[in-house]
Specification:
Number of strands of chain A: 38
Number of domains of chain B: 3
GO cellular component, one term (chain B): centriolar satellite
Distance between the termini of chain B: 213 Å
Radius of gyration of chain A: 23 Å
Helix content of chain B: over 70%
Shape of chain B: elongated
Strand order of the largest sheet of chain A: 26-25-31-30-29-28
Distance between the termini of chain A: 32 Å
Largest sheet of chain B: none
Coiled coil (chain B): 125-212, 254-281, 368-395
Number of domains of chain A: 3
CATH topology of the largest domain in chain A: Methylamine Dehydrogenase, Chain H
Number of strands of chain B: 1
Main location (chain B): other
CATH superfamily of the largest domain in chain A: YVTN repeat-like/Quinoprotein amine dehydrogenase
Helix content of chain A: under 10%
Largest sheet of chain A: 6 strands, mixed
GO biological process, one term (chain B): intraciliary transport involved in cilium assembly
CATH architecture of the largest domain in chain A: 7 Propeller
Order of helices and strands of chain B: HHHHHHEHHHHHHHH
Keywords (chain B): Cell adhesion, Cell junction, Coiled coil, Cytoplasm, Cytoskeleton
Structural class of chain A: mainly beta
CATH class of the largest domain in chain A: Mainly Beta
Oligomer: heterodimer
């Protein structure tokens, strides 16, 4: 599904054939599929309206109007029948039920990076709240939206919460002024608290491993600390220096190769393919010899939220690899082998990394840097894939299909779907 | 005695009077003169002159009396005879002289000695003075050095102090900055809290406004209610549901813990297995030491301990028990054995080093010899085994393949049999081929003949039909019924005639199979010849059609 201005376009994933077309009242800011893929919600933040469309019955419609309360965020509940709207200024979260047309309110939600999280199995929802200058976390049962637990956290300014994939542990981390990560069990007990250092800027990003065995914490000091689930103590620190000296690391460097043009075959006026191949630069991967020094960007000292530290963290689906990006070294993706807790590969690109995502089925990583190429890495090697087409297609973000066979590449105005062939066994 | 005075000789030799006058100044003048005489053991010429100077012919008496007086004062007997003076006692004079000479010798010797000593002392003194001078120089030097070093030491200490001071300053600064940071942080927190409270108040106000307004707008417009995802109806929120929620939550947590515990148990079991393995390996490594007499006693005891341990632990069936004591026992026993292994390895190392250094113990020699013997034995064994294996292989092969001759014969037999069979078959084949050829030829001839006959027949038929037709048309009405039946009869006759012909053509007797095939071939050739043949069949067919249409 994609939205264009005020229209919602639904296409088939394998053939990109147009299936449905819906029209909303105003420009759509956000769309989301329900968990059973039967409904799509379109949030129009400016008008404070959420419109829901059904795929089975195109004639069915639903409109939720927040009125003067305004709308800042909207999302589905895991059962696909409730919509949670966050009103302006984070006054409250309204839970609208599509089954019973009833409304519930959650007061005092926290305006932070990630305030509402659902467990993977969709049973429980954790909401970060703040009353009287203190942070609280409430856990609700998604079946009937009953409050299960409500406890306070020892944080200065809770910045985010995240469930572990097994749904039993909740990680909460503090604002970047304080390095503090708290781990709560499902019933609200504090299991452990982790603090690496006191004064410098703290946690930037957090990721759970798919087996819930590890919690990776990326911080502003360019390091990733990994905690284990048995003792909640740090088992290792992964550093991101600008020079890589270890012999066991493979460094793939993206290198531009100038296109070879046969001067005999030049024709006038030049054909379209020739023109595009002349002006679009091809690139491929080269293996650089260790030691390699990466491009290091010194952050501006007196701005808030400096571009320092580990900003992106992602575990692979088979729990074997961790991909990180150090914002100081914005052109490199660092891939760590979790079984050995060592750096295994570094991908050095020509431009700043915009987004990377792991394949949900295999250990394959797709990276995009704002050029018209998507980069794929797997333990077997890495490859550069050029998006064919005229003009510039600057890929800003990408998203894998849940089967791992296709991915969507998004630029500012367009998107395309990249299909990956399965290997014949 | 008297004062020794060192008076220069020339003064003496010049004038005795002067001397006398000079010496008269002193109290012990004669002694001084005597001393001069005695002391200066100078060349005899000077002595002679001196002697002549002392005693002349005028003052013999005086000089003799003087000498006598001196001698008596010195303790010598008087030189005068016992009677009144003037008669000299020669013997006493000679004795006195002798004594005086002896005294002189003695004095000379003493003087020599004293002079020697004096010289020695002088040289010693020089030496000592030199040493003293050198030592003084050294002392000066070392004093200067000391001063220099002290100076440096002072400088370094001052530097050290400075650095310490700097460090302290830095630490203080850091502490100050930290304090500043913490104070600022608290300040910011306080300010933030204040702002947040204000913000909360605004939010509350806004919330009230929003709720109070009772906007009709805040509503949900839905076409129709959608069923729940799981198809169930929504439940009321009651205490029961709360309790159930709690239950479910605890169930989830418990299942997670149980899963983890299972994993941990598995891990534990694995690790225990590994430890057991390690223990067994270590035990298997240690017994070879039994041969060495030295360590025998220790090992003997130790081994018995180990065996006991093993016995105990195996009896207790480790896998099921996981209590503290068993675990501790296992780890302790492994530690013990590991230590023993370490000792063993160390001893071996020592032995090796000793062996390298050349100090061969009896034991080492024996052990090496033993080792060599054993290796030789093993090599022999290996060779024997290899030979045995070879012979066995050969035997096996022979058994499998029997005798060479018989196998060859058999093989030949088989081959001959096959060859004969093949030859027979070839013969048969060739015969059949010939037969086929013959029959084909005859058949072709027959076919040609048939064709000709057919032609003739057709012509005949044609004429006959014409004749018939003509006759029939003559009396058609009467014979209408019979014509259709005659046609099939004619056809049957024709087909029968054809069939009869085909076997008649193929008159040569052959075996049953070829006959059938020939029939088939004949039919085929007939079929193929049909279109190839003249128009007659077509005409016949057309004729048939014509007849049918009628």
């Amino acid at each position: 599904a994609s939205c264009v201005q005020h229209r919602l376009v639904v296409r088939d994933a394998s053939s990109l054939q147009l299936l449905q077309l819906y029209t909303c009242l105003d420009q759509i800011q956000y769309i989301e599929w329900s968990s059973d893929s039967l409904f799509i919600l379109c949030a129009l933040y400016k008008r404070g309206i959420v419109q829901v469309w059904s795929l089975e019955q195109p004639a069915w419609h639903c409109r939720i109007d927040e009125g003067s309360a305004g709308l800042v965020a909207s999302c589905w509940s895991p059962d696909g029948r409730h919509i949670l709207n966050t009103t302006e200024f984070h006054l409250r979260i309204t839970v609208w039920s599509l089954c019973t047309k009833s409304v519930s309110y959650i007061k005092y939600p926290k305006a932070c990076q990630q305030g509402v999280v659902f467990t993977k199995d969709g049973r429980y929802m954790a909401v970060a709240e703040r009353r009287d200058c203190k942070d609280f976390i409430s856990i609700f049962v998604c079946n009937n939206w009953q409050l299960l637990r409500h406890f306070d956290t020892e944080t200065q300014d809770l910045s985010g919460i995240e469930w572990a994939p097994n749904g039993c542990v909740l990680a909460a981390w503090d604002t970047c002024l304080e390095y503090k990560v708290l781990l709560y069990s499902l019933d609200g007990r504090l299991l452990s608290s982790f603090r690496a250092y006191e004064w410098p800027l703290g946690v930037k990003s957090i990721a759970w491993s798919p087996s819930s065995q590890f919690l990776a914490i990326g911080s502003f000091d360019e390091k990733v600390r990994i905690l284990n689930h048995v003792t909640w103590k740090k088992i290792t620190e992964l550093d991101h220096p600008a020079t890589i000296a270890s012999k066991k690391t493979i460094v793939y460097k993206e290198v531009e190769k100038s296109p070879t043009v046969d001067t005999e075959r030049l024709s006038f006026p030049p054909t379209r393919e020739l023109a595009s191949s002349l002006f679009s630069t091809q690139s491929k991967y080269d293996i650089s010899q260790v030691p390699v020094s990466l491009q290091y960007v010194k952050p501006v000292a007196d701005r808030a939220n400096p571009k320092v530290g580990v900003g992106m963290l992602a575990f692979s689906a088979d729990n074997c690899f961790l991909a990180t990006k150090n914002d100081n070294i914005p052109n490199a993706v660092w891939i760590w082998d979790i079984r050995k807790l060592k750096l295994s590969v570094v991908l050095e690109q020509l431009c700043t990394i915009q987004c990377f995502q792991w394949d949900p089925c295999q250990p394959r990583l797709a990276v995009c840097t704002g050029t018209s190429r998507v980069y794929l890495w797997s333990p077997a090697g890495c490859v550069v894939v050029q998006v064919p087409g005229e003009g510039d297609f600057q890929i800003m973000s990408l998203s894998w299909h849940s089967s791992g066979d296709a991915m969507v590449l998004l630029s500012k105005d367009n998107f395309c779907v990249c299909y990956l062939e399965r290997e014949e066994v | 005695m008297g004062d020794w005075r060192t008076i220069t000789v020339p003064v003496l030799s010049s004038d005795s009077k002067n001397i006398l006058s000079y010496t008269s100044e002193r109290k012990i003048s004669p002694t001084s003169m005597n001393s001069q005489v005695l002391r200066l053991s100078l060349p005899s010429s000077k002595m002679h002159s001196f002697f002549s100077a002392f005693c002349t012919e005028e003052n013999i008496e005086q000089s003799i009396s003087y000498i006598d007086r001196e001698l008596t004062t010195l303790g010598f007997p008087s030189i005068y005879a016992e009677s009144k003076g003037k008669e000299l006692n020669l013997i006493s004079i000679i004795n006195c002289m002798n004594e005086l000479l002896a005294l002189q010798h003695k004095n000379l010797r003493a003087q020599e000695e004293v002079e020697m000593q004096h010289m020695k002392l002088g040289s010693d003194m020089d030496h000592l003075q030199n040493c003293y001078a050198k030592l003084k120089d050294q002392l000066e030097l070392s004093k200067r050095e000391i001063v220099g070093l002290q100076e440096r030491d002072r400088q370094l200490q001052s530097k050290n102090r400075n650095l310490h001071q700097l460090l302290k300053n830095e630490k203080d600064e850091v502490q100050k900055l930290q304090n500043i940071i913490s104070s600022r942080a608290t300040q910011y927190n306080h300010d933030m809290k204040r702002k947040e409270r204000e913000y909360n108040k605004l939010k509350e106000r806004l919330h009230q406004l929003v709720m109070n307004k009772k906007d009709k707008k805040i509503a949900m417009e839905i076409l129709n209610c959608v069923g729940r995802a799981d198809g169930k109806r929504g439940a009321w929120r009651t205490d029961k549901t709360e309790a159930r929620n709690e239950e479910e939550m605890y169930k989830v947590l418990l299942s997670d813990y149980e899963q983890r515990q299972k994993q941990l148990l598995l891990e534990n079991a694995e690790l225990k297995k590994v430890l057991q393995q390690m223990k067994k390996d270590i035990i298997s490594l240690l017994p070879p030491q039994k041969q060495k007499p030295k360590e025998k006693s220790e090992d003997g005891l130790v081994l018995s301990d180990q065996e006991e341990d093993i016995g105990e632990l195996n009896k207790e069936n480790m896998w099921e028990l996981s209590c503290e004591t068993v675990r501790e026992q296992l780890t302790n026993s492994i530690r013990k054995q590991w230590r023993m292994l370490k000792n063993h390895v160390e001893k071996l190392d020592n032995q090796v080093s000793r062996g390298h250094s050349g100090a061969l113990n009896e034991k080492d020699v024996i052990s090496r010899e033993d080792h060599e013997l054993e290796t030789e034995k093993l090599e022999l064994e290996i060779q024997q085994c290899k030979e045995m294996i070879k012979t066995q292989q050969q035997l096996l092969q022979q058994q499998l393949t029997c005798d060479d001759d018989t196998t060859l014969l058999l093989q030949d037999c088989y081959l001959l049999e096959e060859r004969e069979r093949l030859q027979e078959e070839w013969r048969l084949f060739r015969e059949q081929k010939k037969n086929f050829e013959k029959e084909r030829k005859s058949f072709t001839e027959a076919a040609i003949r048939l064709g000709l006959e057919r032609k003739a027949f057709e012509e005949d038929r044609g004429t006959w039909l014409k004749h018939q037709f003509l006759t029939m048309t003559a009396d058609c009405k009467s014979e209408n019924a019979t014509t259709p039946s005659s046609e099939p009869d004619i056809r049957l006759v024709k087909s029968a005639s054809r069939q009869r012909r085909s076997p008649s053509v193929l008159s040569s007797p052959v075996s049953a199979e070829p006959c059938q095939t020939y029939q088939y071939i004949a039919q085929n050739s007939v079929a193929s010849e049909k279109p190839a043949a003249d128009n007659m069949p077509n005409l016949w067919v057309e004729g048939d059609d014509k007849e049918e249409t009628e």
